[in-house]
Design a protein that fits this description.
49% helix; globular
Amino acid sequence: MMKLAILSTTIAVTAAFAPSATYSSKSALHSTPEETVVDTSADIPADIPQPAPAVAAINGWVADETKPCYGLPGAVAPTGYFDPLGFAQSGITLNEIKRNREAEVMHGRVAMLATVGYFAGEAIPGPFGLTGPANDQLAQLPWPALSLLTVAIGSAEIRRAQIGWVEPDFGNWSKTLWKLRENYYPGDLGFDPLGLKPTDPVKFADMQTRELQNGRLAMIGAAGMCAQEIFNHRSIIGTIDFYSKVFSG
């Protein structure tokens, strides 16, 4: 009996150091690799600025707040960037810059048409027998023609607002008041029947600058012609002829 007990104890002790016949589940080193998503956002300190998301270019232009007028074209030699009244000074928002440029482009286009209209309207007889200085010709239009002109101008302005401006939110009017669409380039209404708009960003910026310069000059010229006709009630050509006789003696 004692021998049996000693034999049983010896077998049990020996079995404790022998390899086990039971295999555990495979470790991660032997398992099938799986993709693990690691969230590294928690490792980045909050005080480190994150890169801004990419902004889509509009006609090759990307707003850059480090540049004058957010990098919009229009500055030429010899004045370069010229803003004595501070319309585009530091602190002006991008929407205000775009709104001011929209106003400048559209007024420049109207002034270019007006400049040509002053000379053409006074030199060529109109269909309604309009005569005299251009300032006085609008009052000579018959009511039906004046009404059609008013409707045409109003329709064009409404269409321009639909293209470039954010729809008004009457529940919170201050949120959308005077706000342009983010993907709208000031003055680009998509109206180009002659196909003059370049697709190359550099050429587009050059054409935009030329349009702005001609528009700025036209605004000054149209204002001068309007003031001159108000002052002496003579047509442009009539004024030139009058003063040429005066100074020639």
